[in-house]
From TrEMBL:
Name by which UniProt lists this protein: Alpha/beta hydrolase
Pfam family, any one: Abhydrolase_1
Recorded GO MF terms: hydrolase activity
Keywords: Hydrolase
InterPro entries xref list: AB_hydrolase_1, AB_hydrolase_fold, AB_hydrolase_sf
Length: 220
């Protein structure tokens, strides 16, 4: 399905029944990364899986910015009339979730972010260096995005007043101290570092994240 929001079209899938749950993928991906987890989640939730602008079946744009993506998601939720959904965001999706929750206090009922960062230097230096090299050759707007954004302040994190779970893999490409910083500055948030997991090993085409989401929602 497609919906017009914020001046563009977003492609999305809707499955299941129950309270609304929005799943946001990471950079260079699309909603298909959640195929396996959705098979479980749709038993208890109405699952919405949009493709971010510039990704999947959604509109292409010359530039990509996290603020535009956060505005897209807020408009998506409001246009569909979703009543304070739970939002799960992976990587770039987590960044979008942090912005949306900070700027729209009544938009969401709960937020779960995995492998998110609030500034480019939240990436491990080696990973940041790889993306810089890739951009030299590919000039991809999605790579430029990771090198120049986000720029989320501690004050912005402090404006989030809904239940929040912050997760990362033990071998994540996000610096562990940066993940801890995010959790420390969101009032009342919980932090879980998953042993043995990488940035997306427990999320991309994995059912593991479904259990984490369900447990987080049930604890709220």
């Amino acid at each position: 399905m497609k919906i017009e929001v914020n001046g563009i079209e977003l492609f999305y899938e809707k499955e299941g029944s129950g309270p609304p749950l929005v799943l946001l993928h990471g950079n260079g991906e699309d909603h298909f990364i959640f195929d396996e987890s959705t098979e479980l989640l749709k038993r208890n939730f109405t699952v919405y899986r949009p493709d971010s602008r510039g990704h999947g079946g959604s509109s292409r744009t010359a530039e990509l910015h996290y603020q535009d993506m956060a505005d897209d998601v807020a408009c998506f939720i409001e246009t569909l009339g979703l009543d304070r959904p739970v939002l799960f965001g992976f990587s770039d999706g987590g960044i979008i979730g942090l912005l949306a929750a900070s700027q729209h206090p009544q938009l969401l009922s709960a937020l779960i972010v995995s492998g998110a960062n609030t500034e480019p230097k939240g990436l491990k230096p080696f990973i940041y260096g790889i993306f810089r090299l890739l951009f030299v050759f590919k000039k991809d707007p999605a790579i430029r995005l990771m090198l120049t954004e986000p720029n989320i302040t501690k004050d912005e994190l402090g404006r989030i007043h809904i239940p929040v779970l912050v997760t990362a893999g033990q071998r994540d490409m996000i610096r562990a101290e940066h993940t801890r910083l995010i959790a420390e500055h969101i009032p009342g948030s919980r932090l879980v570092i998953l042993p043995g997991e990488s940035h997306g090993s427990y999320i991309v085409h994995s059912r593991k994240i479904a259990k984490i989401i369900e447990e987080a929602v049930n604890e709220n």
